[in-house]
# Entry
Amino acid sequence: MKTCIACGMPMKDISDFAANDPGKDYCVHCSRPNGEMQSFEEKKESLTKFIVKTQGADENVARKIAENMMRKLPAWKEYFD
Amino acid sequence: MSGESIMGESTRQIQKLNTRKKIIETAYRIFAEKGFSVPSSVIAKEAGVSHGSIFAHFPTMNDLTVSVLSDFGDKIGTRLHELAKNCDSTENLLKEHLKVLEEYEAFYFRLITEKNMLPEEARYTFAAVQSTVAFHFSIVIEREIEKGTVKKLPTHMLYNTWLGLVHYYLMNKDFFSDSNESVIKRYGEELLSTYLELIKI
# Structure
């Protein structure tokens, strides 16, 4: 099964893929409304906000967790070298 | 390159992956039994591989701990993903959460009791595991809030209340049982039904 290069989510159904396109390597949550993949900064901010919203973490801590998650994903490798 | 050497290369690759898998699986069990400060030599011995082989795959214990935690996150993620996608209920999602925790109970107990002593990277990896659970939890519970079947409370408080309840029983397992039985198995149903009673409209 393909996993999203930008967040690691498994992509099985067509609706998991960006723009319902199974040819894409990233998921619906990591794309902009026009189907492009979000930028590094956009993704970092959206993940940070998501961690705060769903787990109530301190915002600075949430940002560090988000960076650590992104470090391991193929889409963002170059930002950490 | 001859066909034979390609075969040789792929056999070595498979062996390498198998060794890595064996080390990770052994580490789950040894971490559960002895905690996260166990020396790598113990894991090597139990896995039946040389000490050098562990270093070749995981240069530091932190690398091994992080790999085991990532693997755990992938396992939970895969199990919860389908349920969340298929518009399932909060009840079924939390049932599955409890089922995974019961399967890994000894390991998870060590994790939540020793977490603050783990190196930073391992702690962030654990946070990523919990974020995966929170991701699926939020999809399901927000759908129920919209439908009017769950009280309109902030997602993080709904999530933390659930984790708080489950972790309290796990962390005080010596209080809730006088044997080594699974507290999730014994109390899981009661925890779930009480939690649902609290959040449902």
Summary: The radius of gyration of chain B is 20 Å. Chain B has two domains: 1-59, 64-199. Chain B has a mean pLDDT of 92. Chain B is about 80% helix and 0% strand.
